[in-house]
Write a structure and sequence with these properties.
The chain is built from 15 helices and 14 strands. By secondary structure, it is α/β, with parallel strands linked by helices. The chain has a domain of 281 residues: NAD(P)-binding Rossmann-like Domain (Rossmann fold), CATH 3.40.50. The strands form 4 sheets. The protein has a 7-stranded parallel sheet with strand order 3-2-1-4-6-7-12, with helices on both faces. α9 packs parallel to α10 and α11 runs parallel beside α13. The longest helix is centred in the middle third of the chain and has 21 residues. The protein is elongated. The protein binds nicotinamide-adenine-dinucleotide. The site of nicotinamide-adenine-dinucleotide has 31 residues, from α6, β2, α9 and β6. Nicotinamide-adenine-dinucleotide binds next to α6, β2, α9 and β6. Its cofactor is NAD(+). Pathway: Nucleotide-sugar biosynthesis; UDP-alpha-D-xylose biosynthesis; UDP-alpha-D-xylose from UDP-alpha-D-glucuronate: step 1/1. This is UDP-glucuronate decarboxylase. InterPro entries: NAD(P)-bd_dom, NAD(P)-bd_dom_sf, UXS-like.
Length: 469
């Protein structure tokens, strides 16, 4: 069979050779047709100056591309964020649901950068533009929507930060155990599909897919962290130690697993009772490691250490903010911090409590300024640590005078013995943040204080009417 096959194919070659020898061209329809259509197309283009029209068309297209509005608008400011007006805080009895909304993921990468569906309550934080966070994005091109976790997001600072992130169109997941935070602070976002509120203690691990983590969860006022010092340090402690250590570890673990960037909110308390004034980030501090405040101070110092070790050892992208005294609407009323104390006491017609001689100094930063600083730090290229605070320095007696001016000129003060390890002086050197983050606070105390007074009045009134807050 094999031989037969060879024979047959051999004879067919022979036939081809014979045809060629006889002078006939082998049939090749494809090449002939191709040549013809190419020359026909060429003729078509060359006829009636069509080539000229094509060139002119290309030139017009190129000109339009280079002079479109995106390029012309590069010197114009970003569209302003809508400023919502003050709306009275809502009642607690409307707030039964824990996780109120589900994420819709389909259009996650489709956020319109001009979208601003903030339905906020008090939006003093919104008087900032978004330029520092979104950068310049060509008209018509949509900025990638980020999914961001804010631990402690129903607290004072966290809730203002959440407002800003929601206003710029991101998805926000708040993790909070409501130890000092209040659902009322974020109630205006419930029902928004980009917002989730999860009751979660950061001492426990959690699995989420996210792009950024703002880690704020921590009892931040002496009244609360002294109440539960062990958890503060473990969550930083087992009931004040555990939040700072385990909480930060868990969030760093989450950042490592997901590749998310983590911003840690540390504190000026890492400087302790400072021997350097004003405090620069290079100063290592003067902290009493065994005092009543050390669950907080040392807890935050450990958090910074953990953040840097995860950065160096595991390549986690971290940012560290050292926050100085901050005030504004939604602060806990009776949290023992000096601004909230004075304001609440003056509204309740009680004497303002001044500890010691009242000559110790603090600097007070309005919360909207801090939120701008946090976002600038998260979006920037520098790890930190960065001092975020207002360098304006006031003694406690001077602060009480400002509160009198703003709330009640007849308000009085009463002196009490000073608390243990109370720092004598506190004032941030913010030159590093000015230079590298292009950030500095804009709202002075006399301008910021009246903005928190109406919020405090409403809540104190509700409290007195038995509605709670
Ligand atoms: N406000 C300031 O002046 C100031 C100054 C320095 C540093 N900071 C830091 O900024 C962050 C926010 O402070 P704030 O003033 O908004 O305090 P806050 O008490 O109002 O907010 C803290 C939030 O964290 C939550 N939280 C506490 N422990 C938690 C846990 N284990 N798990 C989950 N959630 C938990 C609380 O419920 C609350 O909502 C804190 O880390 C604080 O140390 C604030």
């Amino acid at each position: 069979m094999k031989q037969l096959h060879h024979k047959q194919s051999g004879s067919s070659y022979k036939k081809d050779e014979e045809i060629a020898i006889s002078g006939m061209q082998p049939y090749s329809p494809k090449s002939v047709k191709h040549n013809r259509s190419f020359s026909r197309s060429l003729n078509y283009i060359l006829r009636e100056q069509r080539i000229l029209f094509i060139i002119v068309g290309i030139l017009i297209g190129a000109t339009f591309f280079f002079f479109q509005p995106t390029f012309l608008s590069s010197s114009e400011p970003d569209p302003p964020v809508r400023k919502a007006s003050h709306i009275p805080l809502l009642e607690t009895n409307n707030l039964e649901t824990e996780v109120e909304s589900e994420n819709t993921l389909e259009d996650r990468n489709d956020v319109d950068i001009n979208n601003n569906d903030n339905i906020g309550i008090d939006q003093d934080t919104d008087n900032t533009d978004t330029s520092s966070v979104s950068g310049r994005i060509p008209v018509g091109i949509k900025r990638k929507r980020l999914r961001i976790v804010v631990t402690g997001g129903s607290g004072f600072v966290g809730s203002h930060l959440v407002d800003k992130l929601m206003a710029r169109g991101d998805e926000v997941i708040v993790l909070d155990n409501f130890f000092t935070g209040r659902k009322e602070n974020v109630v205006h976002h419930l029902g928004n599909p980009r917002f989730e509120l999860i009751r979660h203690d950061v001492v426990q691990p959690i699995l989420l897919e996210i792009d950024q983590i703002y880690h704020l969860a921590c009892p931040a006022s002496p009244v609360f962290y002294k109440y539960n010092p062990v958890k503060t340090i473990i969550s930083f402690s087992i009931f004040s130690i555990s939040t700072n250590v385990m909480g930060t570890l868990n969030m760093l673990g989450l950042a490592k697993r997901t590749g998310a960037r983590l911003l840690l909110t540390s504190t000026s308390e890492v400087y302790g009772d400072p021997l350097q004034h004003p405090q620069k980030e290079t100063y290592w501090g003067n902290v009493n490691p065994i005092g009543e405040r050390s669950c907080y101070d040392e807890g935050k110092r450990v958090s910074e250490t953990l953040a840097m070790d995860y950065h160096r050892g595991a390549g986690v992208e971290v940012r560290i903010a050292r926050i100085f005294n901050t005030y504004g609407p939604r602060m806990c009323i009776d949290d023992g911090r000096v601004v909230s104390n004075f304001v609440a006491q003056a509204i309740r017609k009680l004497p303002m409590t001044v500890y010691g001689d009242g000559k110790q100094t603090r600097s007070f930063q309005y919360v909207a300024d801090l939120v701008d600083g946090l976002v600038a730090l998260m979006e920037g290229d520098h790890i930190g640590p960065f001092n975020l605070g207002n360098p304006g320095e006031f003694t406690m007696l001077e602060l009480s005078e400002v509160v009198k001016e703003v709330i009640d000129p007849s308000a009085t003060i009463e002196h009490k013995p000073n608390t243990a390890d109370d720092p004598h002086k506190r004032k941030p050197d913010i030159s590093k943040a000015k230079e590298l983050l292009n950030w500095e606070p804009k709202i002075p105390l006399r301008e910021g204080l009246p903005r928190m007074v109406s919020d405090f009045r409403n809540r104190i009134l509700n409290e007195e009417e038995g509605k709670g807050n």
